[in-house]
Each structure stands twice: as C-alpha cells, then as structure tokens.
What does this fold into?
Amino acid sequence: MGIRTKFNLGLLAVFALAFATAWVFLDRQFVATARNEVLQNARIMLSAANAVREYTVRDVVPIVTRNNPGWIAPLTVPSYAAQTNLRTIRGEHPDYTYKEAALNPTNLNDRALDWEADFINTFRNTPGLTEMIGERETPTGRVLTLSRPITIRDEACLTCHSTPEAAPPRMIQVYGTANGFGWRMNETIGAQLVSVPMNLALGNARRNLHSAMAILFGTFLSMMVVLNALLHMVVIRPVTRMSRAATAVSLGQAGEGDSFESTGKDEISELGRAFTRMRRSLDQAVKMLGD
It folds into this structure.
C-alpha cells in the first residue's frame, strides 16, 4: 500500500468521523431552531387570542349589556370571541388552530378531546404550572401545541357557571342546564390550546442541513485535491526519484543516478542532499578500490 493510499485512507477516516459528528450536531441545531420558530408563531397566536378576549371584556361587554342587564349572548363571551376571530385564520392556514377546551364546557363545541384533556388534567394536577408544550403526529404532519391553563380567578364567572339557578335565563335558553356548571374558584376548568404545523419549519431545517453538509463535503473534496497535489510534488515525486537512484546505485549503475541539489529547507530536501552526498561518497570509494 503506497503512501498516497495510506494518506487518503487516513484522511477519509478523519473526515467520515467529522462529517458524522457535524451531521448530528447541525441536525439538532437546525431542528431546535425550527421548533423555536414554530413556538414563536404559537405564542403570537396566543397573544392575539388574549388580545381579543381583553377587547371583548373591556369594550364589547359594557356596550352590549348597557341596556340589557343580565342578558348574555355568545358575542359577549371572551372565549367565543377569541375562537371565532382566530377561526378565520384557518381559511388560509387550515393547520393553524386555536381552541379553549374544557372538561365541562357550556358550549359542547368546546368539549376537550382526549389529547386536549391530557393537557387540562396535567394543569389540574400540577398547581403552579403555567404553560405546556407538546408535539403530536397528525394526518397532515407533525404539530406543536402550546397550552396555558384556564383557571377561575374572578367571582363574576361563577354567576354563570356555579348553578343553573344562578345563571342568566338567556344563557339557559341558549345552552341548557346540563353543562358548564359546578365550577369553583381557583379551579382549572380548561386550557387555551394553540396548534401550529411544524412541516414547513422542519422542511427548511432539513434543506439547510443538506446545504451545509454539501458545502462541507465540497470543501473536503477540494482539500483532498490540494493535499494530494502537494503530497505528490513535495513527498512522492522526490522520494520516487531517490528510490530509483538508490536502485541504480545498488545495481552498479551509479552514473545513472539523479542528483538532488535542492535549495529547499524542508525534511525531504535535506534527505535529498544527504542522499546526494552518500552517492558521491560511494562513487569515490568505488574509484579508489578500482585504482
């Protein structure tokens, strides 16, 4: 096995290890960046939902109920307003969803699905937990869900949700008496759930990874070409010449040997000069023996 082959095999082994390490590291970095991007989009959606809720409570409810004390309609329910407004997003982005799910909702459309109930129960069983992030597979791809608890902090909420007898008559007419009652102060009754698709961000992460690895691979190939050229000019070619010259001397053909009068200061040049001195010494010794 020649020097060039050994050199290239060693270089390939080092590169393979470095390439695999870089692939794993960059893959994690790009995926983490993609996930943070998706999470940021979810936080923006949640902020938008809370802005609608606050607007409804601050501006809509006082106007609607000014001349109708005790009257309630879905329009004045912050949860309904937020979900209705953000539902319009699904027209252009069907995989983006916002829901205020509850275990015992007034509106049955808000009843929690099994996976949504898992979030709610975790909040109920973990006091002080203010946010949860989860990922799940769907028929359209991977989805990230950002969730925050809905906890009863205002006594006014119990006017509508403590008992059917205490609830406004209009609410009973709209929703009935079977659901949405029995809530208590400081009880977590549901959760805000924002779901954002990860496919686009993860696809960009994969493309960025492949581009980075292609650049790394191209850089390695360029280095291989340059290093092999240097290896040939600096090491292999002069060593081959010395090998031929040594063979000629060993066969008694000293006159056919090359001269290595190099002005370089590297080890190969020094070896060439030493070989030239040795060959000349052998030539002189042979002449002296001949005389």
